[in-house]
Amino acid sequence: MQRQLYTHNSPGAFDALKDEYFLAITKNRILNLLKFADDFTSITSHEKLIYILGMYQALSEAASGLLLMFTGPHKELVAERSEEILAKLAMSIRSMVASLIAKVRDGVSNTKNIVGVGVHPLTKYAVLCIVRLAPHRDTLDLILASGGDDVASLSDLASRVVGSLEEKPVLPCDDDATAAATGSRHHLFHANNANFVLQSCKPLLGDEWAAARESIVERHVAGYAEACWAPVVACLEPAGRKPAAKVVAKFSAAFDRAYESQARCEVRDPALRDALRRAVSDKVVTAYGVYLKTHPKLEKKLRYTAGELGERLSELFEGEAAEHNK
């Protein structure tokens, strides 16, 4: 600018050149900022997804304001560069989302058979990712919806990520365990995990998404009661004619075995714990009570009354702490 002022050598030269000069400075500064944003597009780790979303959001909100500072070719240049970088950031974000889904899916595939029934670390990781993405939901939904992929929203992402664990079988610790033990652990594990996701993400993803997850929890609660406790109830329906006292004795022995196999299982969520207890009680105590009413002479030969069965079932799912407190 000094050379230009010297060339013009007139008192009004600065006024004539200042707008062009400041516009050039502004353009260079803006292009440097856009280059900084462009550098983010080379990041591929899904662990940085939050930062890329933040950059996309900041640039998309600022772009219109930046254009107000320019006219003509300068405005066109900044507009084209901004759109180009936003498109690259969006592509990076969609790639990171796919990488996140793959990480959880691969983590499930590489996990040895799950033997516990609590909330799995992968489930906690998936939920943490969803919780961190939730503040950017509008931006993420817009980007994913424009990608044409199966995952078109944060809700889709949540369902896909946390649903991966449902493909994993749950095997009991004992290789000689019965099918009932295997099935009960399977359903209890998935009830725990699906409920954890539901309670963590419902405030973020809304009622429609939550309704689908609630049905999954309910299905596994019912599946648990059927897998573990239906064989106990079946003892009340013997083939042929057997003395009622022997039927009840067999039922009581089966109940004790089932109870002992479940005594150390833990369900931390109080609402889920109550739902499981109700499902078991409705199946076991109800059937037992009906049987006793049809055989009133058994009253003095009972190991358990119907009320005592209900009391024992009300102690389930407290975990090992309940065992220590006995």
From TrEMBL:
Keyword Transport belongs to the record: yes
Return the GO cellular component terms, semicolon-separated. Answer: exocyst
Keyword Secreted present in the record's keywords: the answer is: no
Keywords on record: Exocytosis, Protein transport, Transport
Q: Which domain of life is it from?
A: Eukaryota
Exocyst complex subunit Exo70 C-terminal domain ranges (all copies): 11-315
Cross-referenced InterPro entries, in alphabetical order? Cullin_repeat-like_dom_sf, Exo70, Exo70_C
GO terms for MF: phosphatidylinositol-4,5-bisphosphate binding
The GO biological-process annotations, alphabetized, read as: exocytosis; protein transport
Function (record text): Component of the exocyst complex.
| Similarity comment | Belongs to the EXO70 family.
Q: What is this protein called?
A: Exocyst subunit Exo70 family protein
Traced from the root, the source organism's taxonomic lineage reads:
Eukaryota, Viridiplantae, Streptophyta, Embryophyta, Tracheophyta
